[in-house]
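Quick one: co-fold with PMT.
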Amino acid sequence: MARRNSSRVVLGVGGGISAYKSVDLTRRLKERGCEVRVVMTQAATAFVGPLTFQAVSGHPVRTTLLDPAAEAGMGHIELARWADRLLIAPATADLMARLAAGIADDLLTTLALATEAPLSLAPAMNQAMWRHPATQRNLDILRSRGAQILGPAEGGQACGDVGPGRMLEPLEIADIIRPPTGAPLAGARVLLTAGPTREPLDPVRFLGNRSSGKMGFALAEALTDLGARVVLVSGPTALPAPRVAEQVCVETALEMHAAVLSRAADCDLFVATAAVADYRPAEPLGQKIKKDAGELTLRLVRNPDILAEVAARRPPPFTVGFAAETDRVEEYARDKLVRKGLDLIAANHVGGARGGFERDENALTLIWKDGSRELPMRGKTQLARELALLIVERYLERHATPT
Ligand code: PMT
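Sure, here it is.
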């Protein structure tokens, strides 16, 4: 499988005078290894002709949603799926308002709703429009959904005003959007747990949970794609074997504990995605339990906390935990981050209508000592790629900071 380091960029061009800068932006993105497909709003075509972008990007430019010829090629849904990132530059006040409201009245805003790729916006507008409470409110909404806001810069504007609202320079934007070069985790050894555990009651029954392994397997592949050597310790799942260096299959929490602890000295990063049973039956029976009695009392004993034990090692690997919560998600996750001594925790809401266990999609709140980031609801594959990039960022920062 080809590596995809956020290199497929759909560049949405809004209708502002800065649209001319996006021609250079297209070139700069290509220089940095991105494949670029340009989508223009009707207003943008009043500033720059689509042919200019076609010549620079090397691909036909899309300007309308209902274009049978273009849809016969790469349809808008295909384009939405193709993108690793949707970058809108310039993002005008009107475009941001439509995006915040979830309006899909042209090709670009429809793509923004249809894609699971992360959204980056380079706002460009008159300084009074930028400062207007309506624009600032829309900005807050877009930020809270995970949009990356690039700029704007301050200075003289085309209209003669001075203040915030200038689009960042193409070089600055391209340097932020560029795919990570090479393999940032080359040489790093990752130990990752995934899936559920099964705690036997007797030879035919067990206590288990709803984890399918999807989140953990997707993350194992995303970290492999960034160059890491990933050893996956997985509980029972119905998933095909992922692209990892080694997969160790276990069933119980005690087996997972043994498999992890025997390898913990040889890992640089430990990622605990597994839903490990906190308790196991104290005395699993050798024969099938008979239903003779009207009531049955089970005695459970605590399982070891694998994540806490690995984080307590000296020196500890870079440790990433997950927190699956049904309520007070962030509060409980922060408590786990501190109590277990983790570098990073990915909190998710479980038991709701979307995301969490078993589903193909999920949303995460990433929390570390002095920061946090929201990754809104999207497919687990895309979500895992973004989490993997943040793990790289935090891991490299920890190694750059003298202790
Ligand atoms: O597998 P999927 O269907 O795709 O679902 C994904 C998921 C919901 C399972 C995943 O996103 C997730 O949240 N995994 C962690 C589930 C969990 O057990 O959370 P917890 O809050 O109970 O545990 C906190 C952390 O400690 C976790 O990193 C867990 O792996 C770890 N732990 C817990 C208990 C234990 N005995 N040992 C551990 O290592």
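If it helps, Residues 380-400 form the longest helix (21 residues).
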